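Reposting from the mailing list since nobody answered there.

I have sequence plus structure tokens for a pair of proteins and want to know whether others read the tokens the same way I do. The first protein:
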Amino acid sequence: MEFQTRSLQRQKLKRKNRILNVSITILLLLIIVFSYQLFFKGERNQDVIADYEESEGGGNETENQVQDDRNDQDLTVDEEASEDEDNEETEERTDEDWEPIGTAQQDNGQFEADFSKGSVNWNEMTQALQYATGLSDDEMEIWWLGNGGNLQSAVGIVSTFENKNTPYEVRLEWVTNEGWQPVSVEQLSSNPRQ
């Protein structure tokens, strides 16, 4: 009788250990996947942008211009978010029925975005960012505005100055002869450009 009781206890202990080991393994896998997405998602986007700029001869001065504007206001652009802030991104809105904002640019089917600050294209992208976020020209801070992965897409990171730690990441797509159209707006829980 005592032997059977010990045998049953050992079997229960082995079963608990298996369940615990499987749970720990699943938890570790989830941590690895989350960490990969958290740390390498932004890096991948930067690699795509850097590759594009190198292949086009570095004609994109937008990031430097935005950084110079922020330095005038005693702000610095830093690629890393502060360690004490939560880096998890929040829900993305793609279900809006945004329309292209209209354009004064001639397209002819071979549009290439000009990211020079003050250009017609820059001004139209800024209008699209305002349209998607509801921010006015006076209150909107552009932390970054650049290539979105190809010559007919763009990504902007914008906020009010007061909400600089939780900016919006807005994705824009060029619609032939109709202008920039917002396709998604995502509020970030930290500012990757501050």
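The second protein, same order (residues first, tokens after):
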Amino acid sequence: MRKEECFYLGKIAKKFSYKGEVLIYLDTDEPELYENMESVFVEINKNLVPFFIENSTLHKNDFLRVKFEDIDNEEQADEVLGCELYLPLSFLPKLEGNQFYYHEVIGFEIEDQRLGVVGKIVSVNDSTAQPLFEVINGTVEILIPMIDQFLVKIDRENKKVIMNLPEGLVEMYL
């Protein structure tokens, strides 16, 4: 399994018991969706390694208490502390309407109701306070804020994000 085919689920945050149990911080709004997993991919030395789960329970909202197969003591648990966890993209619940996953809209066109097609989404920058669509129009990069009020429709069938952008936002780039 390649990392590009997966999504980031969380990180092994700390040990929980002397029997090798760990607490996993889940980077999700719905931790209960991941309570009964059979396995996860753990990133070790830049490789995704499958780890099978004996049992797991939710712990204090964002944490999952996990007992992995073959990790039976604190020393073995130490070896995976801090490692990131991934699941295949196929495990993500389907979103509908104007909800979307960032990876899902890469390659979609941005279409403004006033200007028409603005360009193609090449990535999403979520390292800023306001996530941004990074859009390419010819050789020009345009940054478009992902603001709910601007978003009109996600047209999955035609691979378009329909927006109602404020006057001047796109024009300042062109």
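Reply #1 (J.P.):
I read it the same way you do. The mean pLDDT is 94.
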